[in-house]
Amino acid sequence: MTSRVFNFYSGPAMLPLDVLERARAEIVSFGGGASVMEISHRSAEFMAVLGSAESRLRSLFNISDSYKVLFLQGGATLQFSMVPMNFLSERESADYVITGTWSQKAYKTACEFGKPNALDITVSNGANRVPVQEELHFSENARYVHYVSNETIDGVEFPYDLDGSEFPAICDASSNILSRPIDLEKYALIYAGAQKNIGPSGVTVVIIRNDLLESCRGRQSGVLSYNSFADNLSMPNTPNTWGIYMIDLVCEWLQQKGGLEAAAVRNAEKARLLYSAIDNSDGFYTGNAELSARSKMNVTFRLPSEAMEIEFCTEAEGKGMIGLRGHRSVGGIRASIYNAFPFEGVEWLVEHMQDFARRKG
Ligand code: PMP
After folding, report:
1. What confidence tens digit (pLDDT) does each residue in 181-223 have?
2. 10, 37, 143, 230: which has the fewest C-beta neighbours closer than 10 Å?
3. Ligand 1 nearest atom to the CA of residue 150, by list position
4. 0.85 cut: is pTM over it?
5. Ligand 1 mutation pick, 81, 174, 240, max ligand atoms within 8 A of CB
6. Nearest-CA neighbor of 97 among 86, 109, 84, 106?
7. Pick the CATH number of 259-360 from 3.10.129.10, 2.30.40.10, 3.40.50.150, 3.90.1150.10
């Protein structure tokens, strides 16, 4: 294997090495035949891959027959449009819980299609908290409640599964899907771009409850309709075959490593180590999120100055740690430590943090 670096990018992000090595072998010949990228999406071989990816997702999440698992394209961004296009008409309303950059974008997009309400939890100096359930009072006429379970840019994560009560809860779980077990019954629709925790970019997983699916039948057509994906085994057109194949491999890897319970333990331990380094730095590093909303996937923090942040990242790169710059809209440092990110990489970063603070603090 050529040398690897510890990659803290927020997505596309690190994939398990075992998965990459298996994919490397099969990119040329899959099961002794053509490349998995070369075979028809209608072939028996690919249908088996699709079926396997779906059943592994079902098994990891314990998904019942009341839900469909779909593979779409267009990223989570298309879901920002598809959700209101399928469930809202011009005069209808939905509640959007705003906890950061992505939920704000989802809300803005929904404004183009209907009359959503913003339940804005952000504070004047940015996004650093999530509401407790009791704080959320949904509008009587809401068609659904939308939220983002992990704000990738701000590093703010819901520590619980939001309860929409009588309203269908729709969740953008792009950056924490498969990172821990969830209470699926609380969700009517979950969507996630794959490129952080499930696979490569270019494929979006949608888990949708049958009653919600039926409620939007006929509202859209073709690739803009959830029903056309559900009715055609996720193939109203050619799907991202390579992406789905990679999802299958990533899910198999997760299953071999003990499923979501075990993933949650590993993720909590990695996050604990990193947040301890922030908390024990005598104020040299300051975390963005409030304690109760700290993301286990994207750890965001600041140094005393922007110049020091640049220096911190440049030095880290020299040591084989890349992708630590915060999103261009908020600056600072962001360490994305998804499922496939190794514990050892977190230890390296902590050592760099301690060393840097010792020299510059
Ligand atoms: N939602 C969240 C939470 C994200 O992190 C991202 C991408 N980083 C998006 C939506 C947009 O995803 P995409 O680029 O796949 O459309």
Report:
1. 999 999 999 999 999 999 999 999 999 999 999 999 999 999 9
2. 37
3. 3
4. yes
5. 174
6. 106
7. 3.90.1150.10
